[in-house]
Amino acid sequence: MTRTEEFEELRPLLFAIAYRILGSVSEAEDAVQETWLRYGASPAQPRSTKAYLSAVVTRIAIDVLRSARVRREEYVGPWFPEPLLTDPYEDPERSAELADSLSMAALLLLERLTPLERAVFVLREVFGFGFPEIASAVGRSEAACRQLAVRARRHMDAGRPRFEADRKEREELAERFFDAFREGDVDGLRELLAADVSLVGDGGGKAPQFASAVIGADNVARVLAALVPPFDRIGVVAEPHQVNGQPGAIFRDRDGKVISTLVLDVLEGRIQTIRSVISPDKLGHVGPVADVWALKREANQARRPQPDRRS
After folding, report:
1. Rounded distance, CA 106 to CA 125, Å?
2. CA–CA separation, 78 vs 286, rounded Å?
3. Where is the RNA polymerase sigma factor 70 region 4 type domain (predicted)?
4. What is the CATH number of the domain that holds 71?
5. Three-state DSSP state, 300
6. I need a surface site. Which of 15, 142, 257, 271 has the fewest CB within 10 A?
7. Interatomic CA distance for residues 202 and 260, integer angstroms
8. Do 149 and 171 sit in the same domain of this protein?
9. Measured distance CA(241)–CA(224) in Å, rounded
């Protein structure tokens, strides 16, 4: 097998590692590309290509995350990871860990960790790497990596919900949610929402968004239902789609361009959080991005009463 073939075989794993460390599709893709360049420039053939490339992409991702942290502290409004529609890496033996680590909720919990803690947690808990490989990847001793793993696991466990919803329950609830949303059914939406549900958007200061989180089942149901008439008039459609392994949707304009993504966080038979990514900077990998400001103007126009032209 050539070096190119070996790399391409491992590319899905490398991207999956980088994305979970960085929470960014574009930065993860750049990290994988930089890994390929370093691999091509290395004269020696590593004993384990998988271990070598995983270590390289981890080190690159850690460096990128350290600089990204500064930008995220100055981010306008709530910061969410870039939505991922499909995880390219599959491992039947670790499917539960892979799926759990991909959710928006889990990625936001990972933001609480230091870059080293995050890298160690991802390699150990998600991908099952041994501590000798992890130590080599992050440039710390095995003992230090074990301590980092313990601290990271403690932080993650403290923030996790105590009861997880199974996939079938999530999908059924999401189907009912989008049916009620399309109909603008306030009561139908309200009964699917947790009492303290929150609706939050990430516009990054570059797209219209909610002034702040909308809290409470009645408020969220009314806000969502109010979107339906203007959306209908300007041809916006909600396309149900898995987002970060959770039920969600892609909103598109009449030309099929991407407006936003939306993901539902389901727990104990109710929707607990609705997260929408609206920032155009985070949607380019999903497809051609719509001009959301123009759509907002069109939607506002559609809200206004139309003049009676019968006279």
Report:
1. 12
2. 20
3. 105-156
4. 1.20.140.160
5. helix
6. 142
7. 10
8. no
9. 18
